[in-house]
DNA sequence: GCGTTTTATGCAGAAATCTGCATGAAATTG
DNA sequence: CAATTTCATGCAGATTTCTGCATAAAACGC
């Protein structure tokens, strides 16, 4: 990994999370903390960020900030962290959109080599920031509010892909009602993904567990792994566990 | 292997992967690292890429990463303003990516009803903000630095569309050399667009008029309308005008 | 065609850069 | 204040780069 590359990644992380830890970065890209520290020092000297004891901070603290208000960001970050663990080098990964998926995209370790296939424009853009990830965009009509592509073409293309892993951003999940959503076309796409992927991972903040929307994507049994920000043995998740779903 | 050939290949690799290693390139085309280094130095001096210790990086690291400040934004705004005039209700409009196109996207009047087809993720996101525009995304592999989709699938899809209007963001244009660019795959996409659209509109800041890159998209005669920020009767544009191209 | 000039390429040795480690100093925490 | 963590510095090994030079190829003038 080149020096500039490393620094670009660090900068990206800083601007994203407003904070980075030397220790964390060191581990993430497999270089010594000394190197990280030198990188931080350099970036700070160029005024790109602020160096502090133990890591670095975004300039926005110091200057004018634009607070990115993602709902329940901490929970989603926890979920994304768990999800990243499932991805191995060489995998084909299929993903929907949504803020949880976006967190996942941001937490992918830079040395990971994999192919990400997605219908989500924001997710695709985020994946593109990673040096070793190949990104495939599924095209079709763009659903304006969710910024994902939907329609027959998209569905046909998804069917052509046998993904190793499929991450679904969940809108509502319930033991009886299954996985549900509220946009007809989005549901069609999710349905196809669930049907074709080898392993389906649902990512869902606990707040949405045991809720339901009007349109059904699939049964809970069709999901292989459920990730929430809660402890796997949490009471709220027992019903899903006993349905044979692996909880993370 | 000729020098120009080598450099074109290097540029292609850089634009594709965002990164090249001197050692890798040297081995790949069987020349010494010295030669590669000299090539990189040359390309960097021309501003086509960024040279760093151990290899080279795409310009996007240096520029597009954090800097929101679009180069020559005022010129591009003028160009976009002229371009908007060409679009009528009900049209199918095909567009590439690039900052000029993005300006166009932002200036579309809200009451315009049209279908926009694009390979550019940022452009698609921008189009999606408009209430009456239907957006079709062409899918395929994502070219990381240009954030547009490229490849056989994308080209095949473009061929299926008979667009009324095609807006091309121009990298370099010259009476002799025609419309040229520097990324092999991007060129393939642009070529297809020019070939299939009913009317081709090239958008180009005057700075890029009478410059050329290595890879040809099409002849100037293949363009129907050329838009720059200059007055249509400007001297610099006369050669194009006399080739039968309409100047705006 | 032939000699000259220019250009391109590879090589060798010196210089510069990058990175990890060790040491002691400084900062942080409880 | 003591323990822990983080930092700065210098240094060493590895890699990369630079420089000048030799050779070969191409372009040019005549």
Average pLDDT of chain A:
89
What CATH architecture of the largest domain in chain A would you give? 3-Layer(aba) Sandwich
Cα Rg of chain A: 19 Å
Note poorly predicted spans of chain A. none
**Looking at the chains present, what oligomeric state does this protein adopt?**
homodimer
Sheet with most strands of chain A: 7 strands, parallel
Morphology call of chain A? globular
State the secondary-structure class of chain A.
alpha/beta
Major sheet strand order of chain A: 6-5-4-9-12-14-15
CATH topology (level 3) name of the largest domain in chain A: Rossmann fold
Query: What percentage of residues of chain A falls in helices of 4 or more residues?
Result: 25-40%
Name the CATH homologous superfamily of the largest domain in chain A: Translation initiation factor eif-2b, domain 2
Distance between the termini of chain A: 31 Å
Portion in beta strands of chain A: 15-25%
Treating each run of at least 4 consecutive H or I residues as one helix, how many helices of chain A? 10
Largest interface: A-B, 30 and 32 residues
Please report the first level of CATH classification, the CATH class of the largest domain in chain A: Alpha Beta
Protein name (chains A, B): DeoR/GlpR transcriptional regulator
GO molecular function (chains A, B): DNA binding; DNA-binding transcription factor activity
Keywords (chains A, B): DNA-binding, Repressor, Transcription, Transcription regulation
Organism (chains A, B): Chitinophaga fulva
């Amino acid at each position: 990994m080149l020096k500039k590359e490393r620094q670009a990644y660090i900068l990206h992380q800083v601007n994203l999370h407003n904070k980075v830890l030397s220790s964390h970065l060191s581990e993430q890209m497999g270089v010594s903390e000394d190197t990280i520290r030198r990188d931080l020092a350099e970036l700070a000297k160029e005024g790109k960020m602020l160096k502090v004891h133990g890591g670095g901070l975004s300039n926005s603290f110091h200057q004018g900030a634009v607070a990115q208000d993602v709902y329940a960001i901490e929970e989603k970050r926890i979920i994304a962290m768990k999800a990243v663990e499932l991805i191995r080098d060489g995998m084909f990964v299929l993903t929907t959109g949504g803020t949880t998926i976006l967190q996942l995209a941001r937490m992918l370790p830079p040395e990971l080599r994999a192919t990400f296939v997605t219908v989500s424009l924001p997710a695709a853009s985020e994946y593109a920031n990673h040096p070793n990830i190949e990104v495939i965009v599924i095209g079709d009509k763009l659903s304006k509010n969710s910024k994902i592509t939907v329609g027959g073409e998209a569905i046909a293309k998804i069917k052509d892909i046998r993904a190793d892993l499929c991450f679904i951003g969940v809108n509502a999940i319930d033991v009886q009602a299954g996985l549900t959503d509220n946009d007809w076309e989005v549901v069609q796409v999710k349905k196809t993904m669930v049907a074709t992927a080898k392993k389906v991972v649902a990512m869902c903040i606990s707040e949405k567990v045991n809720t339901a929307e009007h349109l059904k994507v699939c049964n809970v049994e069709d999901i292989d792994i459920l990730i929430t920000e809660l402890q796997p043995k949490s009471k709220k998740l027992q019903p899903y566990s006993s349905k044979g779903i692996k909880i993370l």
